[in-house]
Write a structure and sequence with these properties.
The structure is a single chain. With 339 residues, the protein is mostly helical. It folds into 2 domains: 119 residues, Tetratricopeptide repeat domain (Serine Threonine Protein Phosphatase 5, Tetratricopeptide repeat); 167 residues, Tetratricopeptide repeat domain (Serine Threonine Protein Phosphatase 5, Tetratricopeptide repeat, Alpha Horseshoe). The N terminus is likely disordered.
Amino acid sequence: MTKTFLCLAIVLTCGVGVLQAAEQSPDAAMANRYLQAARNGDIKAQYYVGALYSAGAGVAFSDAEAFRWFSQAAEHGNAEARLIVGALYTIGRGVPQNYVNAYKWTLLAADADLAETRNGAQQLLDILTTRMSPDDIAAAKRLARPGGATASPPPASTSGATKAPAPSAAAAAIASTASVAAVSPDISRNPQSADDYLKRGNAHVQQRAYADASQDFSEAIRLDPNNARAYNNRCWTRVLLDQSEAALADCDQALRLQPNFVDALDSRGLANIKLGRFDQAITDFNAALRVKPDLASSLYGRGIAQMHHGDKISGGMDLANALRIDPGVGDQLDHAGIR
């Protein structure tokens, strides 16, 4: 969300509570304005209040309150809020996990005008389909029909609840359909193939065998010292292994070999977060987003860095937008300790 739009929203709502706001911190004053507008039925303000509670910006942090306000915006037709509510039901944040409700709200979001929201909704629907029974999906579709959007929620679905979360956008560059077992024979036949080591390293990442992945990426680099992809993949893997200083060196080398390499900028930003270097992380994410504005992992990472840096308003908006684009973006980043 652009700062211009935020400023416009503030101007539209600042006619109420000026005296109270004068005695409050800037974050609290902004939150007060949005809250008053939200209570008066402003749907956009309800969406923003959800983001404020999710960030603890100007209000006490509360997943439950964030969910409540996102839900109000969703019930009034805000497509972005509907997708976020679907994501919150999926992961059980601020509300008990319920795949039927998650599918219902995500299906409603799939009709959004904004292409990014439609794409994010389709991605989450694909994830939910793998976790739900046909009967649960049918129940969710019935709830999504006219008149069903605000129906009482069904009992929480547990079908597929133990399945692993979908990989986030941050790891998309090293996703692989090849298994370790499928690639290993190729390496035995041709041990000088950097590409095969790169493929097997990617397969190890998917299995969360990060130390093995790092070894394969190192071998790919030894065989092909100019392989920017191998340096980036080892950078991301080293972030997961809490080897963030070494990760930075890898990302720097990837960017020397391939300037403006979006994946390397994104990975380096994550490494800088792990090291507590939030200014540098924001710089990296800004550079990545200039090239690819809808990269959810960079939006999510920048949101976390901004919140650590004290800019909770912008941070909360970035987190909300990242979830709208890729509802599963937080899964692998949380696993990596990016929070």
